[in-house]
Design a protein that fits this description.
Residues 1-22 form the signal peptide. Keywords: Signal. By secondary structure, this protein is mainly beta. The protein has 2 domains: 21-120 and 132-144, Immunoglobulins (Immunoglobulin-like); 152-228, no CATH class. It has helices at residues 4-17, 193-200; strands at residues 23-26, 29-33, 41-46, 52-63, 69-73, 79-82, 85-88, 93-100, 110-118, 135-144, 152-156, 162-166, 172-173, 177-181, 204-205, 209-213, 222-228. Strands 2, 4, 5, 7, 9 and 10 form a 6-stranded mixed sheet that branches. The chain has a 5-stranded antiparallel sheet with strand order 14-17-11-12-16, with no helix packed on it. A hairpin with a 5-residue loop joins strand 11 and strand 12 (162-166). The chain is elongated, with a radius of gyration of 21 Å. The relative contact order is 0.19. Residues 15-20 have low confidence and may be disordered.
Length: 229
């Protein structure tokens, strides 16, 4: 089981380590409007001195009520990626195009790993096992429709512990959410967006899920309604 924080860590590793990798993907996070007629794309660049084989595949992220998720192989996906496999010459790049072929009636937004696999053409030098090493690179794809929307609420206890719940059918991020008092017992945070980020950190909020935040003295007890910024 993988947590939503690990999902953000995947993004951070992709961003911070991209320049050090032999194969670079850009962008590493992509949002697709299911009603758009365009074809979003991800570019894979080969910075090695050898021809590099790349295979593209999709894995659906299935989120649980607590925000954790499992990545499942996609058999019959409404999200397509082209081409499925290529050979990229040294110093060259390949454009992979994405297309949503489903309708707009999805019950909620969907998220995927777009996996680029680099199978080894030859066995590892000096290896006696005969096992070839395969390297994977992941981009994260979020698919949504304009009719979908997050609905975020935060409940803070007297000890400063908080539960953030997204009962909407679209994902969002904590950094994109401003919290306003939802009842008389709650008071304004009085914190800027930067202060909120430093205090609470970044969190991905999947649809129909909730996350628990550690105790924080800056959080005042009460119920707060999230407003998307």
């Amino acid at each position: 089981m993988i947590t939503r924080r690990m999902l953000l860590m995947v993004i951070a590793v992709l961003l911070s380590g991209a320049e050090a990798q032999a194969v670079i993907i850009s962008p590493t996070v992509l949002e697709i409007d299911s009603q758009s007629s365009g074809q979003p794309q991800v570019i894979v660049s080969n910075n090695t001195t050898q021809i590099t084989p790349i295979e593209a595949s999709l894995r659906r992220l299935v989120f649980q009520d607590d925000g954790e998720f499992v990545a499942q192989d996609v058999i019959d996906s409404q999200l397509m990626v082209f081409p499925p496999a290529v050979m990229i010459k040294p110093g060259q790049s390949q454009v992979f195009r994405l297309q949503w072929i489903g309708d707009d009636s999805s019950a909620q937004s969907e998220s995927y790993f777009l996996r680029f696999s680099q199978p080894s053409l030859v066995a590892t030098r000096g290896s006696q096992s005969g096992i070839a090493v395969q390297i994977h690179y992941n981009a994260i794809i979020h698919v949504f429709s304009p009719q979908q929307a997050p609905n975020v609420e935060m409940q803070v206890t007297n000890s400063g512990e908080a539960v953030v719940k997204n009962s909407g059918n679209r994902y969002t991020y904590l950094s994109l959410t401003k919290f306003l008092p939802a009842e008389e017992s709650a008071t304004e945070f009085g914190l800027t967006r930067v202060e909120m980020m430093k205090s609470l950190g970044e969190h991905f909020l999947p649809p129909f899920s909730s996350i628990e935040l550690p105790s924080n003295s800056l959080l005042k007890p009460g119920v707060y309604q999230g407003v998307q910024q």
